[in-house]
Amino acid sequence: MYTVDPAQPWAEALAIRDGRIVAVGSSDDLAARFEAKATRDLAGQMVLPGFHDAHVHPEGAGIELTQCDLNEAATVDAIVAKVRDCVATTPVTAGSSAAAGISRSSRRRTRARTCSMRSRRRARSC
Fold this sequence. Notes:
Blueprint: E1 13-17, E2 20-25, H1 27-33, H2 58-65, H3 76-89, H4 97-100, H5 104-120
Antiparallel strand pairs: 1-2
């Protein structure tokens, strides 16, 4: 396991308590210091530290909250059921970009492109 600690860049084992890494070292050292409820032999596989990013982009997050969340739908039947539930429980009003899953900035970009194309064709101005 790579630790990213200059004093001990590599370790053979780690101890976890309450979902947190509490020690790294040799298997013998950790076995002597901790009573294991369970062990897992990774058979030489690499363990690397993870970086978990916890930030949000407010506009995108707000739009996402108005859309049908299919992240947990693992099968076609689950997707169909989730979409049916969303349709049944989500109010849709005329011109609602959130209900259609289209952000205002996306609509502005589309409108700008359309106006630009019209101007090139010498049609009415936007």
